[in-house]
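Here is one chain, start to finish.
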Amino acid sequence: MKKILGVFVFVLAIVAVTAAAAAAWLLMRIETPLGLDPPVDGVVYVSGYEDAAIGATRRILRILDETHLPSMSVATGVDGKLVWTLAAGYADIDSRTTASTATRYRVGSVAKSFTAVAMGTLLDDGALRLEDSYHQWVPGFPQKAHPFTLRQLASHQAGVRHYQPGIGALFETYHQTQYHTVSDALHMVRDDALMFEPGTAFLYSSYGYNMLSLALERAAETGFLQLMDQRVYEPLGMRSTQADHQGRETADVATPYLLWEDVILRQIDVNNSYKWAGGGFLSTPADLVRFANGLLFGDVISKNTRSLLWTPQLLSDGSTNPQNYALGFRVIATDRGPHISHGGSSVGGSAYMVMRPAEGIALGFATNATPLTMTRNLRQELDELLDLFLAARP
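Its structure:
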């Protein structure tokens, strides 16, 4: 009995020490209150949109105050032009480093749209086809119960898993390992069974996009990051977009935070080299708009390929998948034409990009926090900002 009691006391002591250490860690990472009147950096690039920018700025500052986000950055585009950018709040709270329109944020799964457009350039070149088997391009990847295609990977119908449920998701999300190649990073899922027969269901999967990126670099005969630079970022003038490299000095990057009610915690540093194609890039809202403008009005991909990327993919039974997911984009039909978007959430960052092609307008948004308790429909509020600029169109 004494021995059992001794073990119980020992375990209790370990738990108490662990809890105390966790509490101390949290207290050390809780940032001081932001206070009122956050700093603002805004630019109107096209004359005539000044009043729209004033109205949009007021809305952003109200949202910032009500949500307690450390910073918000927004940009809008009209008729293929970047017309306005705004950054409000702090890129780093402790040092009171203000956010600027040049501040880069983790944009999470918006990376899937970037990756899909890179794939689109290869489709235009005839370098690959959507119906190609994955193993045609990556023959060394372990065979699964069923074959799957590049189209199924890009539309989340291949049956590849997403993050593990429960505690497993934390270990994967807060990843620390540095991978130097896309191939090395695929060890995360290479031995996992498919979740269903490809084409029969939909399962959103960042790992599926990482697998896709290896096929893309094989078809392009260059590394994935070089492919993105050469095919997407450089042609579209996205000079602030790059891979999120842990430990590499990068200017103008917002400090990542976790928002819980009105408590702001500095996030643990993570290594996103395991998911570049699925969610591992840094960017600015202005670059998100440049990306959108390039798709709406540019020629980085052909109109036929753009239409293909923006067509919701059907399951094998002929039904539309439950998220209206196309190839790297979500597409919602509205009475004002299609609403094409992608959001992203990562450790210490959230982002959103939306286009309304029939009206020729686009918006990019980013913040340096992962909000755990956000109940408001922030994306809808951001969409409404576009109406201010649409009304101001000359």
